[in-house]
Batch of 3 targets.
Target 1
Amino acid sequence: MQKILIFLIIAISLFSCNENTKNLKIRENTDIEAFSSISSLQALQNALDDDPDNVEILYKLALWHYHKKEYSKTENYLQKAIIIEPNWKLYLLEAQSKYKSKQFAQSQKSWKEAYRLEPQALPILLFGLQSSIDLKDSILASKLISKTINIYPNNPQVYYWQGRWATTQNDTTEAFSHFTKALSFNPDLVEVYLHISGLYNYHEKSEKAILWAKKGLYLKPKYDSLLLEIAIAYQNLKEIDSAQKYYFKAYQLNNTFYKASYQLGIQAWKAGKYQEALTLFENTYRYKTDLPKINYYIGNCHEFLDKKNLAIDFYKKAIQQEPDNIISRQSLASLQQKIELIRLQRVQDSLFRVQQETERKILEEQQKQNIPN
């Protein structure tokens, strides 16, 4: 058992100490990526049974569960380790785990502890940059950018985050400058290609957006976000078949892409494939309820699938969403009129059946009494 544990720790340490940023993820603690390829949960648990206060083992177990997106278990192991012997790696992983589970205030608290213990560690500075930019903390982001670039002037990830920061400030020129500088240090940073493509899409330079996204796909062929950028670019170019092809690829890899399911749903709806369209629109609605006409499309699919009450509900939502939308109002009025006509027809049919039954009974009674007609 001790041999297994020693092997795990040595191997992870070798991966962690590798200064070559070529294979490092931009958004993660570098230990996490290395750990996943050689981890053995059972070996670590057995090692912990032998030595329950070993901080290194607790940290590796936390890493294992973090990689599996089991954030509650991650934090349980980290808390045990922090009580025994706190260090910056424990606090950093705790910050990352809480960030993933959207506990942003608690994540920031853990990050500050890591930063207090090791204010020049690159993983701490990079995660601080990520979270401050994502959460729009401009003061902290500006401070960390200046500090990080001074300490690590040749690190491509630093320039990547500078580019991200410039993007949030709507400074496109600066963003391009930092992104291209990041690639000059390391041309294999796929995230950079994604954001350059996104910038070109934002400025409606669709051909360049496609070009840069395809450069990224050369490095990572199944990168869902790059496929989505290409789809959006083709959509802007009105090349619908190509757009649908890439929307479908992106959606297959990641069904949380509501833009993809929305556009695929529209095409299915236009083709009269209402059940398929409804499934796609409902997926869109799960993640984004305020897209233009989404309530109308769902209502219309329900109407064609003969689910009239659901159709009425969504037509009403569509009118609330877009009060001036004439199509939604007309569809609601038309469907309500159809329902009323059906109701009146049923009443008429019912009265006719009652009349027939009454006449039948009268006729039977007459026949019994031999009363001539």
Target 2
Amino acid sequence: MSKRLIRHQHSIVVDADAETVWALACAVPRYPEWVGVTLAMLESVDRAATGATYAERTRVLGPITTVGHWTVVRCDDAALFQRHECRDEPGPVKEMWLEMQVVADGSRTRFDLAIGCCATAGPLTRPLASVLSRKFRSGNDQNVRRFAALAERAVRSG
């Protein structure tokens, strides 16, 4: 069976300094506040760090939920970059990842969020891959907007 790669990246400029944006990006327990499909953290670390693991309950489609077990495979405080991976989950999606990059620009900061997966592309799963791709595209755009609102609120509240 072949595999289909799905990847979507969205960026947003946040009216906040890089330190504030990076702190929010690293705050794993806060992911349900801005990652739309994350319903709850089941196991969590306080802060993303290379090698850290966490589990979340995620809405897949409609009422269907699953538990994703994630590993932070890279969290580079100097480069303001992190990559998380979720592998060998049940179903047609065998690998998922998300990448976050923070780029400082004075008092404003660009936040890049990429999410993707590698799905098996058999005759029964091909339609699912199309649905996932659309969901990732629209969901990721909403995720970066929620993220920016949280970071900007943190700056205003001091």
Target 3
Amino acid sequence: MADLKDDILNSEYKDRVLGIMEFKEKNENIMNLLKELIYYSSIMVRDDLFEKYKREIEVYKHWIIILSDFDLSSEEKIKLKASFLEKYLQKIKNEKLDIWLHVLLIEDIRNIAMDSRFELLDLLAIGNVIYDKGIFEIFRLTSVHKKLIIDILQKYVVAYVLAGSQVKGRSVESSDVDIYVVIDDTDVKQHTFEELKIKLMDLILNKAMEAKILVNSKKDLHPQVYTLTEFWLAMSESNPVIITFLRDGIPLYDRGMFIAWKQLLLKGIIKPSQEAANKYMTAAENALKEARNKLKNIINNLIIEDLAVAMVTSAQAVIMDSGLLPGDPKETPEMLKQLFVDKGILSMEYVNMLSEVWKMRKDFEHGKVNEYKYEDLMNVFEKAEKFISEMKNLKQIIDKENEKKIIDNYILIYEELKTKFQDLFNVEYKNYVKEKMPIEYNGLENLENDIKNYKEKKYDIIEMEKLKESLLYHIRNIRNLIEDKREEILLRFKYSIIDKEKNKNYDLYLSKSKLYIVTENGIDIYDYNGNKIGTFNDPKYREEMIKDISKDGLNYLDNNVISALNKIFKDYYISK
């Protein structure tokens, strides 16, 4: 067994191996968990695998090997896992070793967490550790801490999440363990928010120290505690700390909320707003003012914190205004470079400024520098003012571009709706308004003229806000008219059919060439020979049906209709 371990740790994979764990003795519960783990630790699991290798799975020792994959693309991760398994499964077979091999990438651990299989993550805390760069110690420490907290707070624990350098591939063996705990405070009435936060922090910190003693760990747990109310408000404001935690964090326990929010974030549904970006730029300016006050009072070594935070916050405001989620402060300079420097919008000078000041802040925090001279701080202060001023200018440019994108989108929607309107009403929207809504006609003419000037880039003669409001008004108006017309058409041409054989009800619509039967699964389309010529379940085909019957709809039953229905249904009843 030592030979296999040595082979792995001296192979081309040695820098990627984070830990090796062994299970020799396996009770029924552990055996079941190891079987479940196979779905994540293998490349592909065939239906017959558990039957074919029943003896090996139950009798052999199980080795769990965790590999680092932080720097790899999705395709490279699959190749890494496949090549590792291929090499060492062959070695195990050739040397007739009684080992069942599980290979987990960090991506697999994330997938286990996102599937809410937290009991499989707890498995990584109880095996015999053969080799560890710190990953199994993290799982032991967090597993015990999590249990201590849940035993006391029970249903009030919303989520317990691993965060920090451990989930970003930047941890070293000496790194401490960052975790976030979200506690439900929505029915707490006996304490103020401040009192509750202090009590929770004391409890969770005490349990962190207890967990460290229980597992004899050299690592320190650094818990961040959020109430559900506090977390929700921070998330609604696109707080970069919360967004980073949500994006990168690995839930080790969740009642369903954290994973749901994470999925919404990954799908782009939770994203920064212009309001959030504005709030961050204001916060940056306020931090700069605070630094100026401290400079006057010669509290000089605290100034570097305010200046660094002010610069990072202003940069994050610009990133958010671009529609992206800001990373943590360490990632912010690179994001600025990719978003703006590489596109020629921003000078690299400003990225270097931010990196330099943030490094000064971290050097002071970690004790590498005990004190900055007054002249150094004045130099940083000038850089911070210059940097934030440039971020404000950049934000104004982005705001103008965003405004144009919004208006471009509104114009596109408006023109698409006008086309749909004409298809349904057989008259142009402009002529309809002139005849039916004369009081709105002058405003519509002004809108059409503004759209023409906008497309010709004559922005200086257009009131952008007025153009936007007018577009929104007519978009809503056309949508309402279209929806009312559709309902009118559907009601006018609708027949009801009862299929007596299947005991089901359907809606029937007739055009000159087609019969549309609306079922629970979509719309079935038939010709008048009774042949089914299509089935649609996409909402856009409902529009096609309405368009067809608005032009060629039949409001009566004739022999052709009855003949077709007799071929489609064996026994039916039809009514208007």
